[in-house]
Amino acid sequence: MEGQSTLEDLRRQLEGRLELLEAMLPRYRSLSDALKGRRWQRRLRERASFVEEVLARDAACLEAMERATRRAELESWPKDSPVLKTVQQVRKCREVLEARVHERLASLTVVSGAASLELELRQLEALVRTPVSFALEPGESFSQLVGYSGRTLQTLLGIAVPLVAVGLPIALLVSTLTLGLTLGLAGPLFLGLMLAVVGLVAALVGLRPGALWLTPARLVWLPSSGEPVAVRLDALPEGGVRFVRGRRGLRVEGDRSVHLPWLGWKRAARLRVWLEMLRHPKLRERSALVAEPVEWVCFPALHRREDGTWFEGQAVLSRRMLYFLPGPEAGAALLRSATGKELDSRVSLPWVLDMLRWQPESDVDVYLLRAVKASRGAAWPAGLARLSQETFLAHELHISYGREVLTGRVGWGDVAAAERILASWR
Question: Which are the contacts of 186, defined by CB distance < 8 A and separation ≥ 6?
Fold first, then answer.
């Protein structure tokens, strides 16, 4: 029994296992504390030596706890044994660390299966080892700003600060003069008002709108608080992009998980289209061949066929061709021709073209020709189509090709691009 053996005897009998438990106890505690709070990723990187030691010695620590517990049962050690107290402390600290590692890992990526400290700590350490870089990686030909979140709140605070700082003191002064408030009552009100102004200013200064960028290889999210997150697009599985909050936000799950709840329905649907396109390996790889984006102009148009029937749709003006895709499903047709995929949400033709700008022009011609053929549209070579100069002066396009005619109005923001493209026709 332990009472008949000194602690030093037990140390010798446990063959260094007790020393191992005593050494691991502060490591478990330190890592568990590092995972608390908002800056846990930075603290985890700072304690990399503790992470390595825990990963290297955790299996031996489990064996030491099991060996000491089994010996205590065989020899009927008392419950207040110093060895058992150490084992209990180590076991409790390890369980707390295991739960926190699991929680933090689940906040970054999809976790499946039972919790395992060693496996999940390795995965967590790999995810946070290197901070997200905002520089373009090799093969990334572009970085596109998708949008911001939190700007509405920042705007409201920017309006509220001057209103509160100027308007309320005047209202307080008028109330004091007209209602006869005593200085004893007006003083605390004025002090509370000043504290409110200071709080609003502090909130305005500290508020950082979240920002979202997209490259051919990554989706980079800079939240309003916390560290940036990058999701590798080649790791996005089928169904890895889902709508949330009534299709006003997205949940993106790949090697990392990102929750984007307040994008708005249009921005969420557009980003979903872009991510579905860049999931396609060929589109990711071919974008590395493009140094400058291809210039296109897309506008609503009417097409009159040779038999005199008119069709509504959208036209795509390029330096090589003029394309017309009829009906409201032009965007879905082009997405299908480029990726073979169909989405159950809105697919706008300009959204698809915005991402295809970063593909070789010959590839995009192939995709557009496929979409035209599938939708029974039209494709006219630039050298054979005739432009009416008079109508273009009013930003109206009237283009003929044999007995066929296409008419439409270019948006004001696209007039300069249309002029450059049509100049190359001439």
Answer: 172, 176
Structure-token match 């169909």, residue found: 342
Cβ count within 10 A of residue 156: 11
Give 220's strand partners: 213, 230
Percent of the chain topping pLDDT 70: 81
Nearest-10 crossing angle of helices 361-375, 330-339: 120
pLDDT of res. 357: 95
**Tokens 């700072």 -> residue:** 46
The pair of structure tokens assigned to 234 is: 């080649």
Identify the residue whose tokens are 């879905």.
Answer: 332
Q: 21 CB contacts (<8 Å, ≥6 apart)?
A: 61, 64, 65, 68, 86, 87, 90
- pLDDT for residue 192: 63
Q: At 2, is the pLDDT very low, low, confident or very high (cuts 50, 70, 90)?
A: very low
The reply to whether the predicted model has a pTM over 0.85 is no
| pLDDT higher than threshold 60 for residue 202 | no
**Helix/strand/coil (H, E, C) string of 69-112?**
HHHHHHHCCCCCCHHHHHHHHHHHHHHHHHHHHHHHHHHHCCCC
Distance CA 6, CA 4 (A): 7
Measured N-to-C along each axis, helices 117-128 and 48-75 cross at an angle, to the nearest 10 degrees, of 170
**Could you tell me where the beta strands, DSSP code E, fall in 288-337?**
297-304, 310-317, 321-326
393 Cβ contact partners less than 8 Å away, ≥ 6 residues apart: none
**How far does CA 211 lie from the centroid of its chain?**
9
290 CB-near residues (< 8 Å, 6+ apart): 141, 358, 359, 360
Compute CA 411 distance to the chain's CA centroid, rounded to the nearest angstrom: 31
In tens, the pLDDT along 40-79 reads 998 999 888 889 989 999 999 999 888 888 887 787 777 7
Contacts of residue 227, Cβ cutoff 8 Å, sequence gap at least 6: 41, 42, 128, 131, 132
pLDDT in tens, 74-126: 877 777 778 888 889 999 999 999 999 999 999 888 887 777 899 999 999 99
SS3 call for 373: helix
Q: Rounded to an integer, what distance in angstroms lies between the CA atom of residue 249 and that of residue 258? A: 11
> Measured between alpha carbons, how far is 195 from 6 in angstroms, rounded to an integer?
63
